[in-house]
Amino acid sequence: MTALENCADGLPAADTRPLKICLLGYRSHPYCGGQGIYLHYLSKALVEAGHSVDVISGQPYPELDPRVKLIKMPGLNLFEVENPTRALRWRHLLSWTDFYEWWTKLSGGFAEPYTFGRRAAKYLRQHGHRYDIVHDNQSLCYGLLNIEKSGLPVVATIHHPITRDRQLALEAAPDWRYRLLVRRWHSFLNMQIKVARKLRNIVTVSQQSKRDIIDQFGVQPEQIRLIYNGIDTDVFKPQPQIQRRTQRIMTTASADQPLKGLRFLLQAVAQLRHSQPELELLVVGRLQKGGATEQLLHQLGLQDAVHFVSGISNQQMVDYYASASVVVCPSLYEGFGLPAGEAMACGVPVISSDGGALPEVVGDAGIIVPAGDSAALVRALKKLLSDDKLRAELGEKGRQRIEQQFSWRLAAAHLVNYYREILGQKKIKSLPLRERGAAGNSRVEAA
Q: What are phi and psi of 308, to 5 degrees?
């Protein structure tokens, strides 16, 4: 193949050399949610494809493949401190970034995306020449614009616009004081919206997220590339040696986040237990003492029927999936829906709401019900718990769907193609005008 034939859309001949990639994450531990899982698996898939990957992360730090270099970018980590008021030290007064992080936490805000961005941009001013491209994992901080202005290409993943979380939290707020706290906490969204509109290259993980980013962040469609997440099917796989508990339902939910829709599942379980008193619900998530979920458990009389586990390993998670007869994903909104994909990969039948991108992941390999509808959950659970054949059929279809459509190897390959496209555009812009014209003519001739 000639260099001319290798041109595409006016870009120079395809560059197949390994890339030097810098991934950014303001907090990246897998137990912090989907963003940590994304960094873990994406970085691993990229190094397995032959690329060099560094991860710059704030606390709590990620768990990474040994081939991936972790560059720690410590902040104050005030969410791990028992009394943030006492966390300030004299040295913090010498740093605007440290002081801002401390003061914002005390005043009810969330400064980590902003302060991480300042620290990461400072580091990359000195060390950015080591990398071909920088890929941010939803910090959407002002620092990204400074990095981009320095000439280093930047990509940002937006899993979904956090305006969705804010909207649902406001709707669930009991009074005006709580609504003020919700608005204060989400004030970092002003920065994220401004930055997203200015970035040239954005990745998102579902069609639903793409629509919502366009609608709620005001981003232009041509700025966004859709690349689905993957599921680690080597880890998340059927465990035939583990016996299923016929009366166990499982879900993954941050207990007091309205977004996750746990209360609708609790209402459904309470209703089902009138006819199936042995029914139990296993929740992978942390129960907040005195929170709304704990109060609801007492109101519904479910204290002994619902069990919470947290801080577990992937293998423990797989074992829990294997022990469940049904996994339920009751979220009001998901930008992708990793728990649904993981359960399907384990061969467990899934009941999912139609919240956000969940139908894109589940497809016809599960039962879809309207989000926020506990009666629909009751009907779906009755149907699935009473039909062994249907459970086996959906479990098998779910595993096949994940294997065929959602792999990290495929996600990494699509991302690398996108990186090379961006780098090719950068080369075109840096060429003299005469050579730019020649590159443009090459496209016509090749066509």
A: -110, 135
Domain range 245-405, CATH architecture: 3-Layer(aba) Sandwich (3.40)
Neighbours of 364 (CB within 10 A): 11
Determine the pLDDT at residue 10: 39
Both tokens assigned to 391: 């459970």
User: Look-up: residue for tokens 């300030």?
Assistant: 88
Chain length of the chain? 447
Please tell me if the domain spanning 20-230+410-446 has the same topology as the one spanning 245-405: yes
Q: Write out pLDDT tens, residues 70-124.
A: 999 987 765 665 665 556 565 656 678 888 888 888 888 999 999 999 999 999 9
CA distances from 16 to 10, 51, 144, 423, 433 (A): 17, 11, 26, 12, 25
Amino acid type, 75: G
Residues 295 and 292: their CA atoms lie apart, in Å, by 5
Q: Which residue's entry shows tokens 């002994």?
A: 304
Give the CA angle between residues 104, 145, 226 to the nearest 5°.
100
pLDDT digits (tens, 9 = 90+) for 356-408: 999 999 999 999 999 999 999 999 999 999 999 999 999 999 999 999 999 99
Count Cβ atoms below 10 Å from residue 275 Cβ, excluding itself: 8
Category of 397 on φ-ψ map: left (φ > 0), alpha (ψ -120 to 50) or beta: alpha
Q: What is the CATH number of domain 20-230+410-446?
A: 3.40.50.2000
Domain regions of the chain by residue span: 20-230+410-446, 245-405
pLDDT > 70 fraction of the chain, expressed in percent and rounded: 87
Nearest to 263 by CA among 372, 409, 152: 372
Which residue is listed with tokens 């390994």? 18
pTM of the model: 0.86
The residues pairing with 71 across neighbouring beta strands, listed in sequence order, are 56
